[in-house]
């Protein structure tokens, strides 16, 4: 769908790579530009998850891309980047260095705009490109904390807890990719380039669109509580509840259905207004009631009343879920070094299909020579640059 769009990807960690991978999945020619030593994510992986020495963290967000390993501090390297932007159609740039780093390298927006006025330049930052937090580390966990997310998700009997995944990174990546796509569409119409600025702080605030809007407009959030209630603004029940044998999650159940599902009389004196306004006290009743039956017993009751519920699945259970299996969103592939690898595929379907895996996550410098040849360098010039340590070529 994005065939003909050429992207230079100067990113590392997760937010930037995931943004670039989204465009790559959709068919853009994305070149990951790495140092001769390689990006951070090649040498780190959560759970120490490596397949034959290849980082799963690297593989999960760098598919469908080519790789150019080059020393950006070298004047010759800069000229190659300039040539790609000026003469070879690589007029979409994505970077997620700290603000100022790309300018220091001679690869900032103003420089690239001068080389190619139609350039689309996307910066993925922690806090934006200016402001008092300019030099602070922009990282998912830290921004969950300062943005209010950590306090929003917590219960009163625990220390404040962040979400147990990099939701701010992933959402920020999606928003950045959306911004790039909007800029591409406008450039098609007007010929104008754009600077797109995505930030993790902006992503974290956007994730809180609903509760933050209530708060800003006089809505009263509940105190953090120790019941099953998982938010501070929904009516109870809304969260995960212990049953006689396991756990179930309940969501948005009206009073008339609750009265049919639970012990007769347990909600005497309650109405839908109190269900919202006194949701913590109401939720304590739900917690007591849920312990009276097993998961299977509750499932039978809830199915008969069309009540919204789901089991709390661990990953092994989730993978056996019939809808998960039907969606078939996992890419099983064979990596030349890592061997058999399973990746989480693109989330959307287009005309009923998931975008295919065209290129495996590349080895460091895997495409350096071919990209330089596209720039007009001959074998002797490429060999000389490799000898002097300006480039790395995968052998």
Automatic annotation (TrEMBL):
Question: What would you give as a GO molecular function for this chain, any one?
Answer: CoA-transferase activity
InterPro entries in alphabetical order = CoA-transferase_III_domain (IPR050483), CoA-Trfase_fam_III (IPR003673), CoA-Trfase_III_dom_1_sf (IPR023606)
**What keywords sit in the KW lines?**
Transferase
* The keyword Nucleotidyltransferase belongs to this UniProt entry's keyword annotation: no
PANTHER family registered for this protein in UniProt: BLL6097 PROTEIN, SUCCINATE--HYDROXYMETHYLGLUTARATE COA-TRANSFERASE
Listed name of the protein: L-carnitine dehydratase/bile acid-inducible protein F
Q: What is the lineage of its organism?
A: Bacteria, Bacillati, Bacillota, Clostridia, Lachnospirales
């Amino acid at each position: 769908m994005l065939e003909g769009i050429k992207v230079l990807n100067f990113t590392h960690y997760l937010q930037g790579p995931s943004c670039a991978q989204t465009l790559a999945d959709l068919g853009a020619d994305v070149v990951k530009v790495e140092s001769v030593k390689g990006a951070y994510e090649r040498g780190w992986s959560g759970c120490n998850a490596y397949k034959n020495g290849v980082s799963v963290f690297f593989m999960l967000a760098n598919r469908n891309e080519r790789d150019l390993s080059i020393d950006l501090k070298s004047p010759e390297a800069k000229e190659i980047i300039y040539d790609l932007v000026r003469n070879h159609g690589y007029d979409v740039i994505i970077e997620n260095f700290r603000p100022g780093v790309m300018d220091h390298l001679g690869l900032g927006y103003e420089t690239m705009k001068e080389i190619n006025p139609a350039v689309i330049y996307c910066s993925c930052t922690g806090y934006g490109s200016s402001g008092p937090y300019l030099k602070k580390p922009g990282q998912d966990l830290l921004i969950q904390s300062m943005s209010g997310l950590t306090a929003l998700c917590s219960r009163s009997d625990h220390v404040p807890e962040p979400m147990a995944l990099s939701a701010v990174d992933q959402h920020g990546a999606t928003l950045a990719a959306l911004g790039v796509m909007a800029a591409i569409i406008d450039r098609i119409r007007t010929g104008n380039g754009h600077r797109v600025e995505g930030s993790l702080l902006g992503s974290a605030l956007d994730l809180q669109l609903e509760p933050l809007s209530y708060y800003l407009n006089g809505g009263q959030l509940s105190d953090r509580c120790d019941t099953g209630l998982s938010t501070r603004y929904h009516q109870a029940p809304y969260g995960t509840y212990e049953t006689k044998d396991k756990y179930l999650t309940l969501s948005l159940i009206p009073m008339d259905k609750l009265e049919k599902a639970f012990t007769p009389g347990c909600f005497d004196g309650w109405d839908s207004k109190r269900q919202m306004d006194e949701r913590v006290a109401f939720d304590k009743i739900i917690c007591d009631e849920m312990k009276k039956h097993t998961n299977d017993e509750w499932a039978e009751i809830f199915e008969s009343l069309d009540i919204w519920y789901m089991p709390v699945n661990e990953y092994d259970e989730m993978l056996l879920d019939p809808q998960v299996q039907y969606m078939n969103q996992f890419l099983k592939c064979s990596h030349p070094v890592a061997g058999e690898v399973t990746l989480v595929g693109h989330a959307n379907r287009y005309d009923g299909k998931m975008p295919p895996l065209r290129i495996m996550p590349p080895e460091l410098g895997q495409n350096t020579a071919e990209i330089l040849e596209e720039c007009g360098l001959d074998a002797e010039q490429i060999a000389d640059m490799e000898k002097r340590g300006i480039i790395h070529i995968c052998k």
